[in-house]
Amino acid sequence: MVLTGANRHDVTQVENVMDGIVITRPESTPENLQHLCADKAYDSAKARSAMEERGFVPHVRSRGEEKLEKMTDGRKARRWVVEVCFSWLNRFRKLLVRYEKTNESYFALICLACAIIAWRKVAPICG
Hints:
mainly alpha
């Protein structure tokens, strides 16, 4: 996660977000490519080159483009994963409107909310 002001556009932070990935990814090889789905906001030469420099194959789709294609396997568009995550975070009223004065405390609350979301997804499997 990268914490910025509300008036910053997503594409300005694409490098910071990709550099902040904390899990180890498998190395991108011709047999095992690392794909990255993005929406129209990331359709620029700078964003595409940043994705490619970090070993991703960018798939930039315009709004509604995935609806035009027939889904043969019944899967939803992958970029909606991010939108669902934002929806889950918005269910935490403390995060919906930012009252925290410091970036550190707000970031800590976001991390706590993400941990709770992950726990809710894992707990039914374990129990």
